[in-house]
Structure formats: structure tokens, C-alpha cells
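yo

u said u wanted the structure for the complex thing, so here. seqs first:
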Amino acid sequence: MITTQHLTKRYGNQLVLNIEYLEIPKGQSFGLVGNNGAGKTTYFSLLLDLIQPTTGHIVNNDIQVNTSEEWKPFTSSFIDESFLIGYLTPEEYFHFIGELRGQNKADVNALLSNFEDFFHGEILGQRKYLRDLSKGNQKKAGIVASFIGNPEVIILDEPFANLDPTTQIRLKAIIRDLAAKQGITVLVSSHDLMHITEVCERIVVLNKGEIVKDIQTSTETLRELESFFAG
Amino acid sequence: MFKHFVNLQWKSFFRSSNFGKGLALKLLMGFFAIYMMVSFAGLGVALYFILKKAFPDTDPMLIVSGYMLYWVLIELFFRYFMQKLPVMDIKPLLLYPINKGKITHYILVKSGLSGYNFLSLFFAVPFSIVLMAQGYPILNVLGWLGAIIGMVLTINYTNFIINKSDKVLLIIGVVILVLYGLEYFKVFPVKDYVGQLFYSLFENPILVIIPLGLAVGTYFINYAFLRKRLYLDASIKKKTIEATTSELGWTKRFGDIAPFLQLDLKLIWRNKRTKMQVFISLAFILYGLIFYGMDPYGETSTIFLFVGIFMTGVFLSNFGQFIPAWDSEYYSMMMSQNIPLRKYLESKAGLISVSVVVMFLLSIPYVYFGWKILAINLGCALYNLGVNVPVILFFGSFNKKRIDLNKSAIGNMQGTSATQFLVLLPLMVVPSVIYFTLKTFVSFEAALITLSVMGIIGFALRKTLLDKVTEAYRKRKYKMIAGFREQNS
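structre next:
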């Protein structure tokens, strides 16, 4: 589904990302872990064509992302709050994203009704603009917005941060469900080793821009990761 | 302790992101500030002589006193919009071992040193000096000056008290109008009576204690109020407005661009700065009044063309110059979504075009000053529609400075760079030059027809032009994303 080749990103003299080859098959739940500055967000930004690669390229479903925009209809993402439009209410925001992804209001509302548990009554019908929601609730809205429009690839940067425990547990179930039942390729990054081993079939560890580990998740994975990061 | 606070203030000024702005902008702002100061000081110096000449029999001081009530009320009215107690600044201080009384004094004293308070003094001090030079008793003048300072501070602190309710603003507005009405229709000579009152401040310097006392009084009312409410859920709370959902179903008529049009309308209506642009634009319809009917220009002066371009295009330039920076907060989302950039731009172009038409319609009453004015404005509107709309959108592709929509509207220069000044050149100067040249060497009609035809051609070619603009946006996509991500730029 997603093939990365000879990908590097350089700022001045500093090489921030250097991935020789990485293949992510369709329907995989893929986890990216690493310390601050490891290159996780840089990789996601390259995947979304928000920054230009210094060398190499990423091919998403046969489409090279930095030359064509055809990957956009089947790829969706939530990177950070800058993906939200602060002066809209959550409903308006969902409907706007729906319009962009060819869904009418009824489609969007039907999808949203599946997430009532997840929203915990704090998102819909609150008469608040997104900018006035708490960080955690903003994140919830952004994550759910990325499910709109039947995407085949979903990219979530640090989805667990700022969420309350109940929501974290629900989100884990949702992500597992997306990959296992619906065949969606889900890319998740996290600082929380526990969450990511629970959710992802495969975990790649980035360190200073390079892939240092590529693990199929098993019962041993958490201990392996912990011993790696303990240094 | 206060030394620390002053130090903090100093640093927040010199290290603020605004301080690092482009040199040109700083010069411009500085120039403007100096201009205001010099104007006020100039008025202060000249006023005595002007009044003496105009009303040789009356003491200028008495006339000035007559207007002082209006000054107080009008200043209160404007400060209501301009000045808020910056309570959010003290949030970080709450956690440190500083007692709350000191924090409250800090913020109140700080507000006493705000620029608004000095503006009146720029007028009052030179005026007092002139008075003394003219042989008015020094003690009385000094007393009067002290009274002015007291009143300025009273206004300052009263503003924070009344700032909490909109009703007071309305009342002040009504009081100003009623007093002026009474005066104008000669029902009751407000100026004479109140003037006497303020004049006594000058006659008996000892009375200076009244305004000074008021200042101290209002200070402590503020202190008592704020001291008790130094909590995150009381005074130091961001105000949130209850959201209203709007369908804007009628935009569906515009087909593909409807979602963007809805977004743009919400953008304009739900954010202070953009909303302000709408009001400013509407107010600028009065711009013509300054120039029309002034004899020296003649009926077809180039000035009128400039006025026409500006009046019909005020929203075009005010709003348009910051496209797409208005959307900078979420620009990376837009770019990762399945967005037809073309439709995005079409929506903006449509919005601006509507504003040009509306401004032209509003300017029709100026036909009172002759049909040529109407013809000029029509030509300008056409030129704006056909040529300036694509031009300003094209220049937008050079924007890469972030705008935080939440920031206040007044004096906010965020997002401003050299582009904003450069774009004025083709927008206003080019049509003026074309008009001037043709009018001088051929005729008024030829000049106007040329501009109109240019506008119509541009309008006919808008699809092609928009394609070019879209291409420019696409090319500069990464630079824009990177620029818009930078906070405090």
C-alpha cells in the first residue's frame, strides 16, 4: 500500500530523516515510536506532502505523493490542532470535511452516531466552537473527522496524548477495528509504548531519523521496546 | 518587587514578536505614532491662538472648559472598544510567592501608564505652557493640568469598571447624543453650565483634589473588585461566546464553491478581526465626502479615480491582501484534504466581487455631485472586478505570515509584510496612471472607457486568470505551509 524509497529530509546540514526502504501493506495497523526529534512527524508530513523530500519519494497506493494529488481522496489524517478550524462548531467541521470528501450530511451523521460513546456527550450539541473546547475534546473531534469519507489510509500523530483513560481505551478498540475488520491501513505514532503495542500489528522504532527496529508485535514486544528505550 | 514587575514589562515589550517585525513596518508604525503625537502637541500649542482669534471677547480657557464634558464622554466611549484590563498577563504570576495584593496593584498601576493616557497629555501640556506664556497665573494652570491628569486617570479606571457591561456603553452613547442635541437645538445650554463647572477647576487650583480624589477612588474600587476575583474561574477567564450554528443553506445555489463560501462567511463573521474589516469597509463609503464637491479638483480629477478605486475596492484590499493567511491556522489541513484549490480561490473571488458590487451600489448617491462621479465609480468598480480581483489573489500566493484569528482587531498588524505594501502599487497606482495619462492626452471619456474595457476583458478571462493564480498557489504550497506554521511571525 505505502512504499517508501531512498527517502531523506535534510534541514541545512542536519539529516532529520533517512529511510532507505519501508513497505506498509494494506490493512496493517502500523505503529511508529521514537523519542522527540526521531522524525515521526517529519515522516507523516512527507506522507501528506506538507513538506518536500530532499531525496527519494513515497508511493501511496501506486501514486507518488509529491508529484500527484490523487492520493488525497483515499487518505485522511489528524496531525495536530492545526487540522481543526477553530471558529466552527464540531458539527459544522464534520460536515465541512464531509463535503470535501464527497459525503452528504446524512452520511456524516450516520458515521457520527457510531461514535457517541467515544464523544462521551462532550462534542456534539455543546454550542461551543472548536477553539473553545479542551485539548482532549479537540483531539477527539479531529480523530473522528479523519474517519469521514471511507478513507483507505488513516494517519494519526500521537492520538493518545491528552485523552482521558476511558477515551484511550475506546480509541484503541476503534483503531484495532479499523485495521482488522475494515481493511484500512492505519498509521499511528505514539510516545506510549503500552498503547502502541496493544494496538499495532507492527512497530517501527525511529531514532535520529533512521529505522532501528522493525518488529511484528508479540507478547515480548513491550519488554523489547522498554529495554531499547531504557538505553 | 515592583522592580521585577517593571523588568518583566520591559522584556515583554522588547522580546515580543512584534518587535522583530520588518524595518519598513516599524518605521511606518513609528511614523504614525509620531504623527499623532505631533498633531496633538501642535493642536495644544495652536488652540489658544485659534480661539483667541475666533472669539476675541471670550477667555479661551472658558471655551475649552465648555467642551471638556464631551471630551470625557467621548474618550470613555472609545476606550470601551480600545482598552481592556490585560488580566490574562498575570496568570503566570499567580503560582509564585507574590501576594495577590501586589499583583493587583501591578496590573492597575501598569494600566495607568498606558499610552491612551498620554495622548491627552500631549495636548494638555503644550496648551498649559502656552497659557503660562500668555500670562495666566502659574499656580492656576498647574492646578488645571493636575486636574486633567486626575480626569484622565479617572477615565482610565472608570473604563475598567464599566467595561463589564454593554449597557453602559449604550448609555454613554445616548448621553453624548442627548447633550449635543440639547445644545444644538438650543433647548439647554449644556456647554455654558458645565463649562462653568470645569472652569472653576482652573479658577480654584485647590479643587484639583476633586479629580485626583476621583482617580484614587476609582482605582480602589477596581482594586477591591479585582483583588477578590484573582481566580482562574473569575476575572482571569477567557470569555467564550456561545456558538450559533448556521446552515447558510442559500449558498448551495452556488454549486461546487458552496462549502468554501460557507466557510468564508463563517470566517468573516465569527472572528473579531475579519468582522472589523467588514465594518471598516462599509464606513469607507463616506470617504468620497471628503473629496467630492471640493472645487480645486475639477470634475474629472485623478483624485476621484483614486477615491473610486479605493471606495469600491476597500474590502478587496483589506480582506483580499491577507488571502490565504486568514486560513493560516489550518492551512496544512486544507492542503492534506481533497481540496480543489481552484474552488477555494473561486469562493474568495466571488466574495470579493460581491463586496465590490455592494460598495458600488452604496456609492450611487454620490451622483448628487454630478454624473461624472457616478461614471468614474462605475469604471472603477469594473476595473476592480476584472483586474484587481485576480491581481490581489495572485499576490496572495506570496503571503506566508500567519494570522491568529483570535487576536484582537485593533492595531493588529499580524500577517503584514512587504507584500501588503507592494500590492497597493498595481491595485491603485496603475489605474490612476492610466487614467491620468489618457485623460490628459486624449479625453475623460477615453480614459474611463479604457479602464472599464480592461475590467470587462479581465472579467471575461477570469477562468484563465484564476487557473494561473491557482498554479501560483500550488507552486508556493510548501513555503506557505512552513510560513503559516510559524507562530509569532
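The longest strand of chain A covers residues 14-24. Chain A has a mean pLDDT of 91.
cya
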